[in-house]
Amino acid sequence: MASKDDHVGIEMVMGGDNNSSVSSKSKGDLKKHMIVFGEKVRRFPGLVWHTVWKVGREDPRIVIHALKVGLSLTLVSLLYLMAPVFKGVGENAIWAVMTVVVVLEFTAGATLCKGLNRGLGTVLAGSLAFLFEYIANECGQVFRAVFIGAAVFIVGAAATYLRFFPYIKKNYDYGVVIFLLTFNLITVSSYRVENVLRIAHERFYTIAIGCGICLFMSLLIFPTWSGEDLHNSTVAKFEGLAKSIEACVNEYFNDQLMEVEVSLEKESEDPIYKGYKTVLDSKSTDEILALYASWEPRHSRHCYRFPWQQYVKLGAVLRQFGYTVVALHGCLQAEIQTPKSVRTLFKDPCIRLAKEITIAVMELANSIKNRRHCSPEILSDHLHEALQDLNTAIKSQPRLFLGSNSNQSTNMLALAAAHARQKQEKDHGVSLTSDKTDSSALLEWKTRRTTEQLKENERKVLRPQLSKIAITSLEFSEALPFAAFASLLVDIVARLDNVIEEVEELGRIACFKEFNPGDEIIDVTCSKQQQDVTQNHLPSHGAD
């Protein structure tokens, strides 16, 4: 018989073996992590170079803007580097560098907006500060401090309140911030500094120099216009929607539709998703571009105020149109799909209708791109014929959509009710076995309550059972997914009228040239590279 010491020895040996195995496993995991980390470090320079090259190739204007910013900072640094200039402006030359960093933006409209806001805010703040300084100097030292404190409080509160006005917040929010900053710097520092007027002059001159360099670079050296970006992005949205509609219908009637499984990781790579994603995410971008475009000079040949806000309205209508395309795309990912044999019956009219819709949307894109009115025949007879063909094809198969058994719903209801009753009786039988030891009064109360719960539970169970039986037993259920798909396709045609009205309104206000018969488009397929470049033209910066 083994002794207690023998058992302890065996446990120690086993524990030592376990510790050694854990230690070896930890070392193996550490070595594996080190190998993975070394591989990432080795690939990092190549990944950085690939990203830099990709961004510059997609939009060369980014490279130009980066060079413009570098050149502007070099020019403004001469205020420090050149001794004669530094003696003239002093240490306040740093304000010119700060102005270039903050004001110089990607587009000319954004630079004008921030530059003029900064200049206007500085001038107003300096003028008001000197007025208060003149009044304070006429009083005693104590009253002067009280007056400065009261002025800072009143002006600060009033300026902050003004920032919440919709018009001020939209157009002059940055200018109000600069006004508040400059006013407080000058007013508060004037209490201790004697030559505050000279400091304010030098600061104003350096800010003006910085703004001047920014405006020169933005307006004269390879300018990038916000209005052109808004115009090109609108064209790209039309082209993306046209591509999504055509690809969605073609994929719906693809033989491999039932085998396709769309995952969330691959959704961003889906060309259909890419087509309408830009439209759905365009609200804030359109509003910012329209705001910046309103600050730009009239560089068109007519020199009139261009209706940039009409582009924003057109974008809102396009988003409503895009929501239907999203629902159409959702039919491809539905849990219940129409069988291939049924879809084949309606393949030709649906593909023809989608092609006509694509032609109409591309005609709208082409008219905006060339700044001309759209064709009077944009809703051609071919589109109406395609709709009529689809309607005829659906009417030719009434049994798929109407069913044949008139008493089918009654039978389903009775079957579902019987199934629910059997399930509840089974559950009730189990619950009664636990009540045999209770008193008679308590048993009577529980029986009455159980009966009421049975009725309620039967109604709750009946609904999901009826839904499940209806899905599996209805004869026309296999055609329901296609009915939803066809309905959305027809709804796209109906919503197309609203889009055409907005495009015609844009052409009327913007004075687009008249349509000529030779302006009709030939190729309805859009260039993917051109669409990607146009989407990358949209700036991501705000007006802060």
Automatic annotation (TrEMBL):
Family membership: Belongs to the aromatic acid exporter (TC 2.A.85) family.
PANTHER family: ALUMINUM-ACTIVATED MALATE TRANSPORTER 10 (PTHR31086)
Xref: InterPro entries: ALMT
Keywords: Ion channel, Ion transport, Membrane, Transmembrane, Transmembrane helix, Transport
Keyword Transmembrane helix: yes
A Gene Ontology term for the protein's cellular component: membrane
Domain of life: Eukaryota
Source organism: Acer negundo (Box elder)
Topology term for the membrane: Multi-pass membrane protein
Protein name: Aluminum-activated malate transporter 12
Compartments in which it is found: Membrane
Annotated TM spans: 62-81, 93-112, 142-162, 174-192, 204-222
Broad class of where this protein is predominantly found: membrane
Entry coiled-coil feature ranges: none
One of the GO biological process terms: monoatomic ion transmembrane transport
Pfam families: ALMT
